[in-house]
């Protein structure tokens, strides 16, 4: 037996701290939450207001621009058609809106952080273990306090998705920048480039394929949070999966599961295509 | 021929010996494990731990707790993969209704009587709370019909759809979710309120607790017995009285034109019938083990306030309510259970 005298618990102070935050700053957190929510609702409004064929055409066009062949656009169009035919269109659009918002914030946070991790050794030592924590901490542990602060629904879902999804983007951005050939950087230095010019003119452009691979990973990991999101009240495909499994309606759960897979394949192929076309250029 | 007859006779004798042996020894003395559904909600977890202590300590049963959500556990009970389901609301799921009718599962007693459920708001919304400095926001709010009032609606406004109020329904896929959705339609409130599914029990609790701490109004479905009921002062909104006719309308697939209160719930210990036939001694104890609703609420509030594990709450109950449970078990078992408490 482990000696009782050495045991300690941080649960009470943490509970008190969370209660203190809610009581004193609850309304501030709700205001932040409503701000994020309004952005998300706009994306969702656009996606749901577009006619279905419009959305499909936009996706096919983006796919074509990424790969410049006809195979991928046809696949993307076919898969989205299938999602619609399974009766999942509206749910898919809601989930997509959530994904896009999470991916957008992930990029805004992840890429600069990745640069910082690549450039500053101290940051690397602090942030890398934090990324491990973010990826392994069971999400409900931080979701419940997040719900209490930000309210139920889409906003904590976006936050949870970012926390779980952003680490690969940070890691690969940092890797991409550190992998840039030192001789290229030296050449740029020799031409008298400032460190800012080196970053934006040399390192970031050369790191783009790696960063895009990171983005691809981030999107894939975000999609695996769809069901967890619906467990905190975010509507979308996850909710139908949950409904299916909670009522042992295996077929319904599988249908919605297929919807998530479709979204995953579409987003994966498009971002991968983007990465490859970057590599070719 | 005679050899065959002899072996048959021997087999019969053996069988007889085996069955008579079974009736002489209790179920657990035969070394069979007692398999309990370790359901996750508070009252279910509390009852599971209570049964674990009573049968484990008192009768020397080898307890196996199997965890899973209510639906998977119900199926396990039907197939005989578990023996006892400690807290089942009768008539709430198709699967269990069918199993009861077919005779694979039956009730063995009531953990508590008259379980109540309904639509709640925090008490301070109506009556205020001078101690916490809260003015009553809707002093006239009493019944579900008043929810359509634009002033009341605005109190519960849904940030995702600000023109509507937010009604916090049951978590996705629970049977109460479908009933609440039907009631929302029946009361004609579906055009004024979003039918918000919190997705999980934890999320529902977190939202209610957060609203309570922030002194904000919130409208939600909840049920007894729960820690939440024992911890916060909540007010149940009045609904038209329950009637079979109205309930049939609510549970059918036709458009809903009226709605009414939930019936008082019948909650039972469900057991697998094959198990019940083999373990009359255990069934007898279950048939007596009924706890008053307030006492369960108290135990659950203790669990929430002291952040106690369900097992600790079971110990707390056994220590403080000996006059209740000693009537359920034999004196010998009571002694063993008491020894287990120290």
TrEMBL record, chain B:
Signal peptide: 1-24
GO cellular component: ATP-binding cassette (ABC) transporter complex
Keyword Kinase in annotation: no
Every ABC-type glycine betaine transport system substrate-binding domain range: 32-320
MF GO annotations: transmembrane transporter activity
Entry keyword annotation includes Signal: yes
Keyword annotations from UniProtKB, A to Z: Signal
Source domain of life: Bacteria
Protein name, entry field: Substrate-binding region of ABC-type glycine betaine transport system
């Amino acid at each position: 037996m482990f000696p009782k005298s050495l045991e300690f618990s941080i649960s009470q102070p943490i509970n008190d701290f969370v209660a203190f935050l809610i009581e004193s700053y609850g309304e501030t957190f709700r205001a932040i939450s409503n701000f994020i929510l309004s952005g998300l609702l706009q994306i969702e409004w656009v996606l749901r207001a577009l006619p279905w064929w419009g959305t499909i055409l936009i996706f096919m066009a983006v796919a074509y621009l990424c790969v410049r062949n006809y195979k991928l656009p046809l696949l993307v169009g076919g898969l989205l058609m299938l999602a619609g035919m399974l009766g999942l269109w509206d749910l898919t659009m809601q989930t997509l809106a959530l994904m896009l918002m999470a991916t957008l914030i992930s990029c805004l946070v992840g890429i600069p952080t990745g640069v910082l991790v690549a450039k500053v050794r101290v940051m690397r030592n602090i942030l890398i273990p934090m990324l491990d924590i973010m990826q392994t901490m069971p999400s409900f542990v931080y979701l419940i306090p997040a719900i209490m602060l930000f309210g139920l629904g889409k906003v904590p879902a976006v936050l949870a998705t970012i926390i779980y999804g952003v680490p690969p983007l940070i890691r690969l951005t940092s890797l991409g920048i550190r992998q840039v050939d030192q001789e290229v950087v030296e050449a740029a230095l020799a031409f008298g480039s400032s460190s800012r010019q080196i970053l934006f003119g040399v390192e970031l452009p050369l790191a783009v394929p790696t960063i895009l691979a990171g983005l691809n990973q981030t999107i894939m990991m975000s999609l695996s949070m769809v069901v967890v999101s619906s467990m905190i009240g975010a509507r979308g495909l996850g909710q139908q999966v949950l409904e299916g499994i909670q009522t042992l309606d295996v077929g319904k759960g599988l249908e919605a599961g297929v919807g998530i897979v479709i979204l995953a394949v579409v987003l994966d192929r498009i971002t991968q295509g983007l990465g490859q076309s970057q590599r070719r250029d | 021929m005679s050899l065959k007859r002899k072996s048959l006779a021997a087999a019969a004798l053996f069988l007889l010996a085996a069955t008579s042996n079974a009736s002489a020894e209790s179920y657990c003395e035969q070394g069979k494990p007692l398999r309990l559904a370790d359901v996750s909600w508070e009252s279910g977890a509390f009852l599971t731990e209570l049964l674990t202590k009573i049968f484990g300590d008192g009768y020397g049963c080898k307890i196996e707790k199997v965890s899973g959500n209510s639906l998977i556990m119900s199926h396990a009970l039907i197939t005989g993969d578990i023996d006892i389901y400690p807290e089942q609301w009768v008539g709430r799921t198709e699967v269990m209704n069918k199993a009861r009718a077919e005779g694979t599962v039956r009730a063995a007693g009531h953990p508590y009587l008259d379980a109540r459920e309904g639509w709640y708001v925090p008490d301070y919304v109506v009556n205020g709370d001078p101690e916490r400095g809260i003015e009553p926001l809707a002093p006239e709010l009493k019944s579900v019909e008043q929810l359509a009032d634009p002033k009341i609606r605005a109190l519960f406004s849904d940030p995702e759809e600000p023109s509507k109020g937010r009604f916090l329904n049951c978590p996705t896929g629970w049977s109460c979710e479908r009933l609440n959705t039907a009631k929302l339609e029946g009361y004609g409130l579906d055009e004024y309120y979003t039918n918000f599914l919190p997705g999980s029990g934890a999320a529902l609790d977190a939202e209610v607790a957060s609203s309570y701490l922030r002194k904000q109004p919130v409208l939600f479905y909840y049920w007894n017995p729960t820690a939440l009921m024992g911890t916060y002062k909540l007010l149940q909104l009045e609904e038209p009285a329950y009637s079979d006719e109205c309930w049939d309308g609510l549970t059918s697939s036709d458009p809903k034109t009226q709605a009414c209160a939930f019936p008082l719930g019948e909650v039972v210990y469900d057991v697998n019938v094959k198990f019940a036939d083999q373990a009359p001694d255990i069934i007898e104890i279950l048939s007596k083990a009924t706890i008053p609703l307030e006492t369960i609420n108290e135990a659950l509030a203790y669990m929430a306030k002291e952040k106690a594990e369900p097992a600790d709450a079971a110990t707390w109950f056994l220590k403080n309510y000996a006059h209740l449970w000693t009537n359920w078990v034999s004196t010998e078992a009571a002694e063993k259970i008491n020894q287990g408490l120290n």
